[in-house]
Each structure stands twice: as C-alpha cells, then as structure tokens.
Specification:
208 residues; Alpha-Beta Plaits; four-stranded antiparallel sheet
Length: 208
C-alpha cells in the first residue's frame, strides 16, 4: 500500500514539473527550462524504476497511470494559479459606455476605444491588455456593465510600446539599480550562468 501511495505522490510531483518546464520553454526562459527539465527527468526515472522493479504488478501500472492523470489536473491548477503572461481582450458593444471605460482605467487597465459599424448598426470596440492573473477581475467589470457584450480574449506572444510597456519599464528602473557598462572582458562560465538566471528571473517577474 505504501508503495502505491509513493507512486501517486511521485506522479503528482512529476506532472507539475512538466508543466513548469513547458511554461518556461514557451516563455523562452532557457535556464529555468533546463532546471525544471532536469527535475522532471529525475522524478520520471525514479517513478518508472519503482514500477518496473521486482514483480511487475498490473495494479502498480494502473496506479502509475492514475497518478499521472491526477498530476495533469494539478498541473493545470498550477498553471492557472501562476497565470504568467498577458491577455489581450477585445470587447464589442452596441453603444458608447464611458462609465465602463472610466472604471476600467481607474482599476489600472489600459483601454483603447474604436468606433465602427456592424451589420446591426454602430458598434464600439475596446482593446484591453492585462496581466492574466487580473483577467477574471477584468471580465467581472465588463459583464457587470455589459452582460450582452461580445468578448474575445487571446494571449499575445510579443508586444512593444504603449501604455503597459511604459509602466513595466518604470517598475524595472525602480527595482534595479543602475549598473555600470560591462567591459569586453572575459566573463567566467559560472558568473555568465548566474547573470542569465538573474535576467530570466527579471523577465519572469515582468510577465507575472
């Protein structure tokens, strides 16, 4: 029984590592990808060795697969809680709603308003870029004002310029002290890796 429990625990640790490695890879965080990949492989081999060692029990294999399925649920939960990155939201409504726009801006959301014409008449479109962890708050505000609004959201891969980028730059300047210009001297491997980890941590902080 203790062996079966250990298999489930290993799988619950393995799949979240897989999730974190995938997130790091998508976000182009090389060092974090390597670290999580190493831990993922280590846990995977350890769990597989337990299942395949000695008498190969069907029950252990089923429990191994069941633990993997539970781990996937935990992995999804971890990804949703981390909510790293940004979401771009397009909101289409059939009339002007300055009150909603003002409320969104007061809450710190960057809003760009467009006017257009659809099949049923004039429309107003709001383009909103927000951090993923604030997406639920954003949706609650939108639907409290416009329950019938047509909303599309997606995750942008890159963006440059604009209101949000300026805020991120200001925060980065405040959180990091001015560094001297690096000279063209040889940088030891350990220092180079540490510098890269620090840089990726800053990127992760900005995306989070």
């Amino acid at each position: 029984m203790s062996k079966l429990l250990l298999i489930i625990i290993i799988q619950l640790a393995y799949v979240p590592m897989l999730t974190l490695r995938t997130i790091s890879m998508v976000k182009n965080l090389k060092i974090f990808t390597a670290v999580f990949g190493f831990l993922e492989a280590l846990i995977y081999i350890f769990g597989l060795a337990i299942v395949l060692s000695g008498e190969q029990s069907i029950i252990e294999m089923v429990v191994y697969s069941f633990g993997f399925a539970l781990g996937l649920i935990v992995g999804v939960y971890v990804e949703q809680k981390l909510a790293i990155g940004f979401t771009s939201v397009h909101v289409n409504i059939n009339h002007e709603n300055d009150e909603m726009v003002d409320m969104l801006r007061e809450k710190g959301f960057g809003v760009t308003v467009f006017s257009g014409k659809g099949r049923l008449g004039n429309r107003q479109r709001l383009d909103i870029l927000t951090r993923r962890k604030k997406e639920k708050e954003l949706m609650n505000i939108i639907y409290s004002f416009e329950p019938e609004a047509f909303v599309i959201s997606y995750e942008p891969k890159t963006f440059k310029g604009g209101y949000l980028t300026e805020i991120m730059k200001k925060r980065l300047r405040k959180s990091t002290s001015d560094q001297d210009t690096q000279t063209s001297q040889h940088i030891p491997l350990v220092k180079s890796v540490v510098d890269e980890i620090t840089e990726e941590a800053k990127q992760l902080k900005n995306k989070w």
